[in-house]
Amino acid sequence: MTGLRPELLDLVGFIEAARLYIVEFSERYKIACKVDYPVNELNLEPEQSIALFRILQEALSNVAKHSKATEVMISLNIIDNKIILKIADNGIGIDSNLKTRYDSYGLIGMRERVYLLNGSLTISGEPGHGTAIIVEMPVLETSKN
Fold first, then answer.
1. pLDDT by residue (tens digit) across 69-108?
2. DSSP 8-state code for residue 96
3. Are 49 and 105 in contact (CB under 8 A)?
4. Closest to 114 in 3D by CA, of 36, 25, 53
5. What backbone torsions phi and psi does residue 75 show, to the nearest 5 degrees?
6. CATH number attached to the domain at 6-138
7. How much is the pTM?
8. Could you give the residue ranges of the DSSP H alpha helices within the chain?
9. Cα Rg for the chain, rounded, in angstroms?
10. 89-100 core/surface letters (b: 16 or more CB in 10 A; e: else)
11. Where are the domains of the chain?
12. Within 10 Å of residue 40's Cβ, how many Cβ atoms?
């Protein structure tokens, strides 16, 4: 399941694919994951769905590798026609110098994916107080024929 293929996104949609990935992540790394998805269904363009899924994967990978967190909160909302995905942990936090590193390919990849979809990515946190990644992008609903 780790390498969930984009085809799974086509089959079950972003919300279910993300749910499956989060369950597997929690079991593998023994990090409790709380999920808040007031949205039951998202009909997104494939590029947007893939981007959000890959960002979720990278953010959780960073949590497992660097944060020493015991808990992660993942929320997904739509507010004012914007998708807001937030991944926040209770780990050791992030040094302000690392938020803008240009040699961190995971962060670069997340920023590029969001930028290409006219969105923004914010990283917040302080040493000892956890880290949060917030993605905001306009909803690009799939056209229904």
1. 999 999 999 999 999 999 999 999 987 665 555 557 788 8
2. T
3. no
4. 53
5. -130, 150
6. 3.30.565.10
7. 0.88
8. 6-29, 46-62, 105-116
9. 15
10. bbbbbbeeeeee
11. 6-138
12. 7
